[in-house]
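As a point of orientation, let us examine one representative protein, giving the amino acid sequence and backbone structure tokens.
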Amino acid sequence: MPIDVIMPQLGESVSEGTITKWLVHEGDVVIKDQPLLEIATDKADSELPAPTGGRVTKILAKEGDVVAVNTAVCQIEVGVTAPAEGAGAKAAPAPAAAQVAQVASGVPANDGGGRSATGGSLASPAARKAALENDVNLADVRGSGEYGRISRDDVLRATAPAKPAPSALASVPAAARPAAQQLSQIINQGGGFVPPIPGVGFGAFKVPQYRAVEGDRVVPFTRRRRITSDHMTYSKFASPHVVTVAEVDLHKASRLREVNKERYKKEGLSLTMLAFAVVATARALREHSALNARVLDDAYVVLKDINIGVAVDSPDGLVVPVVRRADELGLRGVVRSIDDVAKRARNGKITIDDLSGATFSVTNPGLKGNLFGGAIINQPNVGILRMGEIQKRVVVVETGEGEQREDQIAIHPVMYIALSYDHRVVDGVAANGFLWRVTEIMEKGDFEV
């Protein structure tokens, strides 16, 4: 009896996955938990194991297809142990040349949107709803998303009267036009503004063509580097970033760390200043919830759970695993969570669930850092806190009480922290109040260790 193998829910915020490689062919016999295919999402890559042993009777989606969760990707005949006649002689169908060109250039190969594994138009639920409401045939809509995916904005543009393209966009090479159109949608639908296009230019300015010189080394973008590039570009255009900086006297927090770090080390834990910053951030977010939010189409939502993304390094580059409900963990729980995800990131064992669901992010420059810097917001968050380098500085401290109070000069460890926030929904008062509270918690050393 054949059973369907479906695209799983690869993380709470993931609704689809791209089939990057089939590891089996039709007719192959597989055992339970044998990898069937490789799947890529905007969070991470993973393999889909066979849910049971048997023979692969039918492959329902090609390499390069974007498949929604809970959609069948292949069928397995349960209990069959002999391969079909001629199995393995022919590989699973590869994408046609036009599809390869489409993936490389980002331009949909067909006149309309992309196609799903079932042959229908590749469109988001919001786009399908808009198409029904406006009596639009999705087959006639050109999608601007990856693999020609149709968005709600694509449908709404299809209902509007045709306008002559801006002259600046007309001068853009064909392969770059989808990016220009997407950026235009983000910035301003009605003003005719064409934003600068990476690698192309803007208006009268054109990026000089690269001319190879002996000794130059061209490094192709990895898939993760491309996703990061697109994410950062989108974030800078979508969110009006404002950066505000605070100076933090870490005298009391550092003493707490020095007194307790050996005790933590004996338990296999690393008590870092990053953990103190995450705890302070989580507590401040509970009191200043405007920073724990995300923007919707025409509204924003203040989120209940406080899940803090922590930037860590991995063999494939920077990743941002999530410490969930950080405000409920306390310092020890945060230290344990950061240690766990950091080790798995370094060993290449990070999962999609580990990288999903952050409501706010904290990043640090590492041992060889710098004074401070404004980080780019990790979408769809509305804020990110960047730690600076810790340096000993001369500070003024108050001693005594009442009439005996006096100022003295001392040398304390000091750090600058910079908050980048989305001015669409976060006002300066809320942002400054949040940053002031983070500073207060760290300066008072208000932690249970």
